């Protein structure tokens, strides 16, 4: 496929056919994705490919903590897990919230689940002393994750970047034997999509790009 076609049609895929994703195809996806940039080209990535059903079920269960709060806050009209706005949902409301099955189903129905980790010894977290949630260290891992999804699309495979498991990161690390100095950056189910989206809806460039300043005039007029 042409690059721009891939970029414009790589949407989140959460429903899969059940067809297998052979190791050679998965290896080809990762072989191309590995050329993503990382800070200082230190490439502190580790990918765990999960096929075992019991392990995936355990991981899906751990995702329920993050998914429960996400669901409860969304139903309450809040921005789920927002770092600037404290949760208004009561502990009782949170405990009573049922997690929709579709929020964990991709981990069970995909052909493979990739758990993408990053070595914190080799990231440059320039925002670590700022009074806000850290973002910058993600530059060393998320370009790779996006490359995985682009490469998967080129192979006729789909997936979705999920982060619900991170709410239970210590237990995820114990489940998968992840060292203390590594962080869980993403959980990515991959498989053959039941339906391939061919047209995505996104904001136009004029809405998010300005000249010279945040409040400058739009780049596109």
TrEMBL record:
Mind listing the GO molecular function terms for this protein?
oxidoreductase activity
Q: Which InterPro entries match?
A: Nitroreductase (IPR029479), Nitroreductase-like (IPR000415), Nitroreductase/BluB (IPR050627)
Residue intervals of the Nitroreductase domain: 12-192
Keywords attached to this entry: Flavoprotein, FMN, Oxidoreductase
Top-rank taxon of the source lineage equals Bacteria
Listed PANTHER family:
IODOTYROSINE DEIODINASE 1 (PTHR23026:SF90), NADPH NITROREDUCTASE (PTHR23026)
Q: What's the protein called, per UniProt?
A: Nitroreductase
């Amino acid at each position: 496929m042409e690059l721009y076609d891939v970029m414009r049609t790589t949407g989140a895929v959460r429903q899969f056919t059940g067809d297998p994703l052979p190791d050679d195809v998965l290896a080809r996806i990762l072989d191309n994705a590995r050329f993503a940039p990382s800070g200082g080209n230190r490439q502190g990535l580790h990918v765990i490919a999960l096929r075992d059903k019991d392990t995936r079920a355990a991981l899906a269960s751990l995702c329920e903590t993050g998914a429960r709060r996400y669901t409860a806050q969304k139903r309450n009209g809040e921005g789920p897990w927002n770092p600037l706005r404290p949760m208004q949902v009561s502990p009782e409301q949170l405990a009573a919230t049922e997690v929709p099955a579709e929020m964990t189903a991709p981990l069970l129905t995909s052909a493979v689940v990739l758990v993408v980790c990053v070595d914190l010894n080799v990231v440059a977290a320039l925002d670590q002393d700022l009074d806000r949630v850290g973002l910058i260290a993600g530059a060393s891992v998320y370009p790779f994750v996006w490359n995985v999804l682009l490469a998967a699309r080129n192979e006729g495979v789909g997936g979705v970047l999920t982060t619900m498991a991170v709410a239970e990161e210590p237990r995820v690390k114990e489940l998968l034997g992840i060292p203390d100095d590594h962080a869980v950056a993403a959980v990515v189910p991959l498989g053959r999509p039941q339906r391939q989206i061919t047209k995505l809806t996104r904001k136009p460039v004029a809405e998010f790009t300005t000249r010279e300043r945040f409040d400058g005039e739009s780049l596109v007029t």
